[in-house]
Write a structure and sequence with these properties.
Beta-Lactamase; 25 strands; alpha+beta; 9-stranded mixed β-sheet; binds calcium ion; binds ligand C2E
Length: 721
């Protein structure tokens, strides 16, 4: 495009430049033609002044005076104007005077010119006749007659002459010709170097020459000088001015440079353009890939999954195959993320993606829906086929992964929806698989559930629960109970705050159901704040009776959590020294800086920290070392185990010893029987919490049990009443 425009431009410029030359040459041609005619006119005018003169009639016609002729014609014209020959012819065209180069000569001088003179004379005589006699003009001072002259060019002995025949005429008419025919003066002027030089100087002609008229050399202009018969004698040839060429020559280098530069520019623009175009194409492909693939795993993403799923669902119309939509969700992924950090979580997801692809092979497509959830689409002809694939998936994911973060073991829960008829919306198919997957999770991990329509109802119920919980925080159906913690003598030393939900329709819903739901949905933050407000308000007057508050990992990970706790305690007038924050081991694992900062801050502000469910999480020891907790709570499962064998006792013994050696206090949870209590005592455990020593109950009954009689407690009690 640019190149062709450039070429066109250059061609136009060259054409115009060449036109300049042509036009200039044409103009010069006309100029020279006119100039040469004028040159002859001027020469003729010189002759006329000498010949059209009363004196000339008297001296050349009436009585021929050779002296006069010498002086005024032969010599004069030669000396001043370079006429090499001058002849005077009488009425019968006989030469009566000859001069060659200003000197009078004999009649022989005339002979060479006789022929050309003979060609000119008839026209002179004709004009003379036409003019007629002078009689009628007499009496006037000046008879003003135009000169009667004819001119031609001729060549003699290689010299070209301008030959003119001029009729002798009077000027004032004091003397008139004696007959009808006055003498004629024939002059010849050679077209010589001097004439050419003067002519070319006058008209600024280059290299003016006389050449053969037959050929016109290239790049030269010429006018042909002809004899009386019209035959070409010689050509006046010159090199015409070529302003275009001059222009081109002077512009040549700048022009070439410019063209080169523009060409280079065009080339660069095209190359850059090409690069830009291929970059655009590549980035288009990239953004298409990005739009349809998950960045972490390079698996197809949700958008592409929907596209494929829609297509595969439509294809069910004309095939007897079925489509299995398999939802794969990792178990305990949150724990890995919480404890080992997001980078470890990302690595885990990448590894799982690779394993899923391997397990599924060519016949199934794996995509990542987001988080730790993957979807496998599989065209199958029997449920058994799907079950086999599901088993392969479960096994491959369950395999231990060794990474820079250590050994990680995760399982996965699968939900499978088998669709055998067209007309199902992709979102519906995915929801079914999702429902089945949740059923897998609920019924213990690492298992596969095939979707059945009833399950949908369960999920709906779960969703309903979520929205009900949202409302519960403001509609008064949530409240707190407190479970006593007693010493070996049965004296209440503390109480653990436990949240209760009294659903308006469904009755009491245990926190084991709705707390994890709140953690999954993020509702745990407002729920946690509700608990803190309520607990501080209800227990600020309990004095030394310590209160345990459960805090989930999500809360601990949120910025400003410690500040929130402190503010809420201050608002309620509660002393942090009387509160124990219960954290689980898994909440403290990993290197989340926010969690660490919150724990540090809480400790600094006077709260104590208890490690809840001790012994059930990951590496309890490292947590004990990193966070200086105040107390461990031996999990109920260990207390249960005390009944059957001595193994349970050994474990509890070890835990108590460990706590002692670290200077921590120990409490056993879920103590239900006296037998358990005795065994725990034997292990060195001195504090107990469980149905045996006290059921969870409301704040006022705890205050009563503890014998709290302070004004604040009485006030709190009366408020409860
Ligand atoms: P947890 O922190 O281990 O709380 C102790 C749980 O054991 C309570 O169940 C309690 O009622 C129960 N329990 C106490 N003694 C016995 C016993 O002798 N035998 C048996 N079988 N169980 C006993 P609950 O109240 O259902 O709470 C379950 C879990 O819910 C709690 O476990 C805690 O993790 C969570 N939770 C409860 N309230 C809150 C809360 O306010 N905030 C947070 N973040 N989590 C809470
Ligand atoms: Ca607890
Ligand atoms: Ca516990």
């Amino acid at each position: 495009m640019t190149i062709s425009a450039l070429v066109l431009l250059v061609a136009l410029a060259l054409f115009l430049i060449q036109r300049f030359d042509v036009v200039a040459a044409e103009r010069e041609q006309v100029l020279v033609e006119h100039g040469f005619a004028r040159q002859i006119d001027e020469l003729n005018a010189v002759i006329a002044t000498q010949v059209d003169w009363d004196d000339a009639i008297r001296s050349l016609d009436h009585k021929f005076d050779a002296e006069w002729a010498d002086f005024n014609v032969g010599n004069y014209l030669y000396t001043f104007n370079g006429f090499s020959h001058a002849f005077v012819l009488d009425s019968s065209a006989r030469p009566i005077y000859s001069a060659v180069k200003g000197e009078r000569s004999d009649a022989a001088g005339y002979a060479p010119f006789a022929t050309v003179a003979a060609r000119l004379i008839p026209a002179v005589r004709a004009a003379e006749r036409q003019r007629g006699p002078f009689k009628q003009r007499l009496g006037k001072n000046n008879i003003i007659i135009p000169p009667i002259q004819t001119t031609t060019t001729t060549q003699l002995a290689g010299v070209t002459y301008i030959v003119t025949a001029t009729l002798v005429q009077p000027d004032f008419g004091k003397v008139l010709p004696k007959g009808d025919r006055a003498p004629i003066v024939v002059t010849a002027k050679p077209i010589d170097k001097a004439l050419l030089g003067a002519f070319s100087a006058r008209y600024l002609l280059n290299e003016l020459l006389l050449i053969e008229p037959t050929v016109k050399p290239d790049k030269r202009q010429q006018i042909v000088l002809r004899d009386a018969d019209g035959a070409g004698l010689v050509a006046l040839s010159w090199v015409p001015r070529a302003p275009g060429t001059v222009l081109r020559q002077s512009l040549q280098w700048p022009l070439l440079g410019g063209i080169g530069l523009m060409g280079l520019l065009a080339f660069l623009v095209m190359r850059r353009g090409g690069a830009i175009v291929s970059e655009l194409i590549a980035s288009e492909a990239r953004s298409r890939h990005l739009a349809f693939h998950d960045q972490l795993t390079q698996l197809p993403n949700r958008a592409m999954l929907f596209e494929r799923l829609r297509l595969m669902l439509a294809q069910l119309a004309d095939s007897d195959h079925q489509l299995a939509v398999i939802c794969v969700d990792l178990d305990r992924f949150k724990d890995v993320n919480d404890t080992l950090g997001h980078h470890a979580g990302d690595c885990l997801i990448q590894t799982v993606a690779i394993r899923l692809r391997e397990a599924c092979g060519q016949n199934a497509t794996v995509s990542r829906l987001g988080g730790d959830e993957f979807i496998v689409l599989y065209r199958c002809s029997s449920q058994q086929q799907v079950a086999d694939l599901a088993d392969r998936i479960v096994m491959s994911v369950a395999e231990q992964m060794v990474s820079e973060f250590g050994r990680i073991e995760v399982g996965c829960s699968l939900g499978v929806a088998i669709i055998d008829h067209p007309g199902v919306e992709p979102s519906e198919a995915l929801r079914w698989a999702d429902v089945a997957m949740y059923r897998s999770k609920d019924s213990g991990r690492r298992c596969v559930t095939f979707f059945e329509p009833e399950m949908d109802d369960a999920l709906r119920a779960r969703r309903a629960l979520e929205s009900d919980l949202r409302e519960a925080m403001s509609d008064g159906s949530l409240h707190m109970v407190y479970q006593p913690q007693v010493d070996r003598g049965g004296q209440i030393t503390a109480a653990e705050a436990l949240v209760r939900w009294n659903h308006p329709q469904r009755g009491a819903i245990p926190p084991g159901i709705f707390v994890p739901l709140a953690e999954e949905t993020g509702l745990i933050l407002p729920l946690g704040e509700f608990v803190l407000r309520r607990v501080f308000a209800e227990t600020s007057g309990w004095g030394d009776l310590r209160v345990g508050i459960n805090v989930s990992a999500v809360q601990l990970r949120s910025n400003g959590f410690a500040a929130l706790v402190t503010r809420l305690a201050a608002q309620a007038g509660a002393d942090p020294a009387n509160y124990e924050i219960e954290l689980t081991e898994t909440a403290l694992l990993g290197d989340d800086p926010v969690t660490a900062a919150n724990v540090e801050a809480l400790k600094r502000l006077g709260f104590s920290i208890a490690l809840d469910d001790f012994g059930t999480g990951y590496s309890s020891l490292s947590v004990l070392q990193r966070f200086s907790v105040n107390r461990i709570k031996i999990d109920r499962s260990f207390v249960c185990a005390l009944d059957e064998s001595g193994e349970g006792e050994a474990l509890v013994n070890a835990m108590v010893k460990l706590a002692r050696s670290l200077g921590l206090s120990v409490i056993a949870e879920g103590v239900e029987t006296e037998d358990q209590r005795q065994r725990l005592l034997a292990c060195g455990c001195r504090e107990f919490q469980g149905y045996l020593t006290g059921m969870p109950q409301n704040a006022s009954s705890i205050a009563g049990l503890a014998g709290i009689k302070s004004a604040a407690a009485i006030e709190a009690l009366s408020r409860r009443a």
